[in-house]
Specification:
By secondary structure, the protein is an alpha/beta fold. The protein has two domains: 73 residues, 434 Repressor (Amino-terminal Domain); 202 residues, Endonuclease, Chain A (2-Layer Sandwich), CATH 3.30.870. It has a six-stranded mixed β-sheet, sandwiched between helices. Strand 4 and strand 5 form a beta hairpin. Helix 1 packs antiparallel against helix 5. The longest helix is centred in the last third of the chain and has 23 residues. This is Helix-turn-helix transcriptional regulator. Pfam families: DUF5753 (PF19054), HTH_31 (PF13560). It comes from Actinoallomurus spadix. InterPro entries: Cro/C1-type_HTH (IPR001387), DUF5753 (IPR043917), Lambda_DNA-bd_dom_sf (IPR010982).
């Protein structure tokens, strides 16, 4: 587990811009340190998004790099925005640090590729499903903690309606739609909610059917978050802890895995038909239980 908070998307963007500007001027970090008096180690940490630069430090760097006024204003705004709180900050005392960071990344992403091996993807869950699955996976949570987690999960889903809306491509193993989380009634409503969500132009859903056999998603779930003008990030939520992978080789590997999963999954149209059939089966089970 990382010992320090993961850098925000805006801080990563600022760091990348400062590194690019210094390189374009043909300056080493030693050159910048000598010209500005900024410690070389501090410059390294700024360019790696390890720390937020102070306003006067940023101004000194931009002056040395002879940055045009419009870009100076944009980067200064980026520094200011990097410390702004999002809606999720109200829950930071109750959420793991890595989860809060993930929500921020998700909020900044232009598209999300989400593969789930056992769960309905979080952005497509109903409240009743979330209320059943969260304590099922984390039985040590108190009722109040479950309520807050459910509230956070529901608020996250607003990004599907924002302008511009997040582009979500979700794939789940067929096991996720057959596991009766919360009982037949909850699952029937959840599956019908998936059918409704698939009508959104920014939502695509596929299922990897049982008859595919072994496939590369079996080791576990993962998310590929893609940003406008910034490198993608892979997020893995596991029993061993939450991981963020940013190295190009790791991102390339998980992007390749996702492409493979898209190829072995059934089409969105076939997925819709399968989900409706399974929802009807839950309806029959619900009626049988009521007798």
């Amino acid at each position: 587990m990382p010992a320090h908070p993961h850098p925000t998307v805006r801080l990563r963007r600022l760091a990348g811009s400062l590194n690019r500007l210094r390189t374009a001027r043909g300056l080493s970090r030693e050159d910048v340190a000598e010209a500005t008096g900024i410690n070389k180690a501090t410059l390294y940490r700024i360019e790696k998004a390890k720390v937020r630069p102070q306003a006067r430090t940023l101004a000194a760097m931009l002056t040395l790099y002879e940055v045009e006024p419009d870009e100076q204003r944009a980067l200064t705004r980026l520094l200011k925005d990097s410390s702004q709180s999002g809606w999720w900050q109200a829950y930071t005392d109750e959420l793991p640090e890595e989860y809060s960071t993930y929500i921020e990344f998700e909020n900044e992403a232009r598209s999300v590729w989400n593969y789930e091996s056992l769960y309905i993807p979080g952005l497509l869950q109903t409240e009743d499903y979330a209320r059943a699955v969260i304590p099922g996976g984390m039985p040590s949570l108190s009722r109040q903690e479950v309520d807050r987690r459910v509230q956070v999960r529901m608020e996250r889903q607003a990004i599907l309606d924002r302008d511009p809306a997040l582009r979500l491509w979700a794939i789940c193993d067929e096991a996720a739609i057959h596991r009766a989380v919360g009982g037949p009634a909850v699952m029937r409503d959840q599956l019908l909610h998936l059918v409704s969500a698939m009508e959104r132009p920014n939502v695509t859903l596929q299922v990897v059917p049982f008859n595919v056999g072994a496939h590369p998603g079996m080791p576990g779930s993962f998310v590929v978050l893609q940003f406008s003008g910034d490198p993608a990030v892979v997020y893995i939520d596991s029993m061993a802890g939450n991981l963020f992978l940013e190295e190009e080789a790791d991102v390339h590997r998980y992007t390749g895995l996702y492409e493979h999963l898209r190829a072995v999954a059934i089409s969105p149209d076939a997925t819709r038909k399968l989900i409706i059939r399974v929802a009807d089966e839950y309806q029959v089970r619900e009626e049988t239980d009521d007798e």
